[in-house]
Specification:
By secondary structure, the protein is α/β, with parallel strands linked by helices. The protein has a single domain (7-205), classed as TIM Barrel. The chain is built from 9 helices and 8 strands. The protein has helices at residues 18-30, 45-61, 72-78, 92-99, 113-122, 147-155, 171-176, 186-189, 194-202; strands at 7-11, 35-38, 66-69, 82-85, 104-110, 126-129, 160-163, 181-184. It has an 8-stranded parallel beta barrel with strand order 1-2-3-4-5-6-7-8, surrounded by 7 helices. The radius of gyration is 15 Å and the shape is globular. The two termini are 21 Å apart.
């Protein structure tokens, strides 16, 4: 049975310092993160493999799924619990055929309900919408209206993840409108106390 997609979904920041990455992620896990996504757009293949493998060992200690962003080959190599794909990556269908039914597959759907319905029909385990607010991680991301979450909860059966510029000040707006999980990067890993911040993000779900 696949893990429930709910709560704080922590997305790792870019960086070459593996030790720092592991320390920050351990604190996020200790603070209650329910999913970790490894996303590093600046690392080469060798560093990605090293970091993902170490993160996977860490996540297993907390019994939390590790989701790999974009890289199907990396997810296969380290035996990660899942893969997250964007609209321009491989299809959900292809990911499902390759990974099988025991892995989590998530899909970015931006501000388009039709992409989410297609992803769900292809077998996605969750869909992600955003950015709902200005994003430090993706400053050029399309903007999604808050009402999209309400519509998604009416149209879809799968869990809905909200992403993009989420902070402790605005997270409840997304949760109240039906967000099953909130995906956070900079507002979590960019703070001085990652564990305490993770606890604060997780509290509305408890």
């Amino acid at each position: 049975m696949l893990p429930r997609i709910s709560g704080l979904y922590a997305i790792t920041p870019d960086g070459i310092d593996t030790k720092k990455l592991l320390v920050m992620t351990q604190k996020a896990l200790a603070g209650g993160a329910k999913l970790i996504q490894y996303r590093n757009k600046t690392a080469d293949a060798q560093l990605r493999h090293k970091q993902a493998e170490k993160l996977h060992h860490l996540c297993r200690e907390y019994d939390v799924p590790l989701i790999i962003n974009d890289h199907l080959d990396l997810a296969l190599e380290i035996g990660a619990e899942g893969l997250h794909v964007g609209h321009n990556d491989i299809s959900v269908n292809e990911a499902r055929r390759t990974l099988g039914n025991t892995k989590i597959i998530g899909a970015s759907c931006y501000n388009r309900i039709e992409l989410a319905m297609k992803a769900e029909n292809q077998g996605a385990d969750y869909v992600a919408f955003g950015a709902f607010f200005a994003s430090v991680t993706k400053p050029d991301a399309v903007t999604a209206p808050l009402e999209l979450l309400c519509l998604a909860k009416q149209k879809l059966r799968k869990p809905v993840v909200a992403i993009g510029g989420i902070t402790l000040l605005n997270a409840n707006l997304l949760i109240e409108r039906g967000g099953d999980a909130i995906a956070v990067s900079d507002a979590l890993f960019g703070t001085q106390d990652v564990q305490s911040t993770a606890q604060s993000f997780s509290q509305p779900f408890s």
